[in-house]
Amino acid sequence: MRLKDLRREVLEANLELVRRGLVLYTFGNVSGISRAEGLIAIKPSGVPYETMSAEDIVVTDLEGRMVEGKLRPSSDLPTHVEIYKRFPKAGGVAHTHSEFATAWAQAGRPIPCFGTTHADYFHGAVPVTAKLTPEEIASAYEKNTGLAICRRFDELGTESIPAVLVAGHAPFCWGESAAEAAHHAVVLESVARMAYYTIGIHSGATPLSRELHDKHYLRKHGSTAYYGQANKSQ
Ligand SMILES: [Zn+2]
Hints:
The protein has helices at residues 3-19, 77-86, 99-107, 116-119, 134-138, 141-156, 178-201, 210-218; strands at 29-34, 39-42, 58-61, 66-68, 92-95, 163-165, 171-175.
């Protein structure tokens, strides 16, 4: 993908968060990566969404060094970088402070899979990271946030949950593109809201059976997927 197109896609994915009511003021950020060129395009730090243009999107290398753009990149860039390193298939990363997903992150509770909406996207409960230590907070905080995410997935041994809750902070989501990462952030917020309501209605609600969870996830993902159209251009 050309850099210009990547910037436009990243801008569009950032604006999608606004359209879906996931961000307040300048909260949140979406990035996209060109694996071929080793470059990341990300929202600039502290720029209002209303006035943001594709030219404002900052391009950096995988060390976070600026390659193109006049503005500073989002301060969360080092977290995005660690996610890109850990998940080679990730083409985009989205971070929001959307209310319900953030409430679960603040509670330090993984989001159980109570229904098929969740199972269609996330193959398991959406996990929570460990809390960062004072040392991890004191220096390289954003990078350490990314490393905490990576450690949690190393412990879980799964690549099939493109979302995580950072303890006491908020969610990060990823996907094959910036657009898909934003889409996952929107779905995660919906799933988080429904899980909250589910427990409110019945505090003893139990997660979906493994069979139904697998059925819904695997019919949309992986080699045995059959959901939707075989030819995606149709
Ligand atoms: Zn944040």
